[in-house]
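From the methods appendix. Each design record in this collection lists the tokenized structure first, followed by the designed amino acid sequence. Records were kept in a plain field format so they could be parsed without special tools. The example shown here is representative of the layout used throughout.

RECORD:
FOLD TOKENS (285 positions):
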């Protein structure tokens, strides 16, 4: 077995482009051209990229269904002194992509794991969103079924931080519709589609507006998406204000609907939720 002596035995986690093939670092090209072995999700897809780069490492398929089993084999290659790269179909491996089990196996076997950083759709999208990025919350892909998706959206509805989701053409409409029903149509959203590709589009507006645009134009439902939703605006100002204590104060002073609306103005959140809290209080009384 031939061993390439230019790179020490280690796992190199290499980011590749998410569209535009020029979005790859010189170091990534150099590493992919020098490693003995390259682990890839879809070897046919990755062969095209490697051919484009003029790199010809031995390709090994490592995907979500076999990566737990592949760990021992990759460690055995490292023990023979071989250098190994890990790439995914696009962007940075392990970011909503396979690789976590492999990295863990290699690290546990005592071999170095080196990042070769580059593009990731989440960072690329945030860089053009125009939403706060001092804190943001990456939620990856939402569940496929409506009930589970709404539950997942609900779980982060009060986060003051920009929410970031990955989405596919199959579910972009359903996800946006669920975001309207969970977050309300007024929340700001940015939908980044086909970044760095020919049909790159960035839609910015309220959830109601953006859902309308995507419904009206089938082109806006094609390709790959990063959906970024503004955080709950009031939530960061409400630290210390307990909704139940506030409901206790407001409930005796005005009708439940009015009290719920006052709570939205004071601490944000959904009117329906506060109405239920207040009427629950009324029943308890
Ligand atoms: N590992 C990749 C990364 O670092 O971004 C992500 C892989 S994940 C399986 C694929 C998802 O990333 C797509 O469904 C989409 O949500 C997002 N994505 C990838 N490329 C994109 C692009 N060019 N424009 C917008 N979103 C993209």
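DESIGN:
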């Amino acid at each position: 077995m031939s061993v390439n002596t230019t790179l020490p035995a280690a796992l190199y986690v290499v980011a590749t482009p998410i569209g535009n093939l020029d979005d790859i670092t010189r170091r990534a090209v150099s590493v992919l051209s020098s490693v003995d072995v390259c682990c890839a999700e879809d070897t046919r897809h990755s062969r095209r990229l490697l051919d484009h780069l003029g790199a010809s490492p031995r390709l090994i398929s490592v995907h979500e269904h076999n990566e737990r089993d592949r760990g021992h084999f990759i460690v055995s290659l490292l023990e023979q002194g071989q250098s190994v790269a890990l790439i995914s179909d696009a962007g940075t491996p392990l970011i909503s992509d396979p690789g976590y089990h492999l990295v863990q196996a290699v690290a546990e076997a005592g071999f170095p794991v080196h990042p070769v950083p580059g593009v990731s759709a989440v960072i690329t999208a945030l860089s053009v969103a125009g939403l706060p990025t001092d804190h943001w919350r990456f939620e990856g892909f939402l569940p496929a079924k409506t009930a589970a998706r709404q539950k997942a959206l609900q779980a982060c509805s009060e986060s003051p931080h920009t929410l970031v989701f990955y989405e596919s053409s199959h579910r972009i409409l359903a996800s946006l519709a669920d975001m309207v029903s969970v977050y309300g149509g007024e929340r700001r959203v940015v939908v980044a589609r086909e970044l760095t590709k020919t049909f790159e589009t960035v839609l910015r507006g309220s959830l109601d507006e953006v859902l309308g645009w995507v419904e009206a134009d089938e082109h806006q439902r094609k390709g790959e998406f990063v959906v970024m939703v503004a955080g709950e605006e009031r939530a960061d100002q409400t630290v210390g204000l307990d909704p139940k204590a506030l409901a206790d104060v407001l409930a005796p002073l005005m009708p439940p609907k009015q009290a719920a609306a006052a709570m939205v103005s004071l601490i944000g959140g959904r009117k329906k939720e506060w109405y239920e809290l207040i009427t629950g209080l009324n029943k308890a009384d």
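APPENDIX NOTE: The mean pLDDT is 93.
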